[in-house]
Design a protein that fits this description.
Helix content: 40-55%
Bound molecules: heme C
CATH architecture: Orthogonal Bundle
Structural class: mainly alpha
Radius of gyration: 14 Å
CATH topology: Cytochrome Bc1 Complex, Chain D, domain 2
Largest sheet: none
Shape: globular
Strand content: under 5%
Number of helices: 6
Number of strands: 0
Distance between the termini: 30 Å
CATH class: Mainly Alpha
């Protein structure tokens, strides 16, 4: 297991390990209202590896994005960005909701 993940870590391509996939599948925001929005909207793409979306909780997918500044990420979440749909298909998500959900997936808060 350890050896497998080490060898998969070469160059920029970093594949999530089983524990990363499990975190993405099972973790939810603590706040029930946010968790409901997360389940309804973000999970379909962000909890599934290989969907093209950065995997929830998986730092190698989120850190390079967070390094560009959370404001840019939130603008993209709100307006859409390539295959990322506007508002993440959460039409009743406020800007604060999107921020909290993004920080949850990037594991830097909430
Ligand atoms: C239909 C699939 C889909 C859904 C639903 C979805 N996303 Fe995404 N998301 C994507 C994809 C694909 C990307 C990567 C876009 C790219 O970098 O080209 C992405 C990227 C992002 C990014 C990073 C943007 C950047 O600038 O790097 C944020 C933040 C984000 N999503 C937040 C959310 C939130 C919050 C939700 C739920 C409210 C959500 N997404 C729902 C597909 C989805």
């Amino acid at each position: 297991m350890v050896l497998t993940s080490l060898s998969a870590c070469s160059a920029a391509r970093q594949e999530p390990a089983a524990a990363d996939l499990q975190w993405a599948e099972t973790s939810r925001p603590v706040d029930a209202r946010l968790a409901e929005r997360y389940e309804r909207s973000c999970v379909a793409c962000h909890a599934r590896n290989g969907s093209g979306a950065p995997l929830a909780g998986f730092a190698p997918h989120w850190k390079p994005r967070m390094d560009k500044g959370v404001d840019q990420l939130l603008r993209h979440a709100s307006d859409g960005f390539n295959a990322m749909p506007a508002l993440g298909q959460c039409n009743d998500c406020s800007a604060d909701d999107l921020r909290a959900l993004t920080l949850f997936m990037a594991r830097s808060g909430t």
